[in-house]
Amino acid sequence: MGLTEASTEEEVDAYLSNPNYYPVGTFDDAPDGTGAPQHIAPFFRTDLSAPFGTPGDIARLDNFNNLVYTVLLDPTSLVTEGGRSFLMALAGEAAGKEMADDYLQILQETGVIGPGGQVGEGFPYVTASTMGMPGEEATPVGRRVDEQKLRDLNAYTDSLQAPMATGFDAAAAMRGKEVFRTGSCVQCHNVDQGRRVPSFIVPINQLLADYMPVVLAERPVQLPFRPMAFDPIQNDVSTIFDDKTVIVDASRRGQPRGSAMPLLLDLARKPNFLHDSSVATLDSLLDPSRGPAAPHAFYVADAAQRTDVVEFLKSLDTTP
């Protein structure tokens, strides 16, 4: 089932409430025209994180927060001139224009009143200054909210500590730490979660061994809305693991298409794992029975050692 500008409210509700399309604990944050729900990641100690967004397409936290304010919390900005440029940069000129036109049609037909009091006019609602070039990281739709508010929000999210880890076997966790430290895990992840995560992007073909995407559209330089070439729009229909990066990826800032590194915090309370929520438990995540072609196929073969590593991961927090 898909949604179009002609879908009824009942059809939209049925789609968004269907756990087969949107599992509990996931959301779709990108206005890219694709249904790509992803795991809601814990939001702690943003001073230790970077880049931002699952695909690592945002380098700076203040720019990430500005994107949230000006686009994700107020998508009516996408029907402005700057919003249209943003969509065309991501999805291509024809597709970007179609998405903006369809959304404006929905706003008009459902009687959404703009800030000026007219139906379907005067958007966006967000209080922001018009500045910069649409498509740039700092001003994705050519708007930016108050800098002091962005700095204040940065300071707040930087201060958020993960819950203190409890309910783990301390002796097993110490053994698991040694397995983690001496294995392949540390090629990407820190042992100490109080250290800033590595800032590189892990290419998707390193996370998915048999990844074979089909190119759907090229994204060359196309002025004025795409001043640098992006990686092609591409998709592997055999997996949902790449859905988040079909259109939105880090190539728009000159980085590989893949995933940014997460902090390993509050793992004991997570209901599932990986950004597509496809793995139910930490033990399953590390179990080689998932196979070499599964996403994030980095395993601990010995069952006892795997149990110890699970206890270690459950023990991680930002307590000094």
From TrEMBL:
Q: Which residues belong to any copy of the Cytochrome c domain?
A: 171-317
Superkingdom is Bacteria
Q: Which GO terms describe its molecular function?
A: electron transfer activity; heme binding; metal ion binding
Is Heme among the key words of this record? yes
Record has Endoplasmic reticulum as a keyword: no
Q: What is the lineage of its organism?
A: Bacteria, Pseudomonadati, Myxococcota, Myxococcia, Myxococcales
Q: Which Gene3D superfamilies match?
A: Cytochrome c-like domain
Q: Which UniProt keywords apply?
A: Heme, Iron, Metal-binding
Please give the name of this protein.
Cytochrome c domain-containing protein
InterPro entries, A to Z:
Cyt_c-like_dom, Cyt_c-like_dom_sf
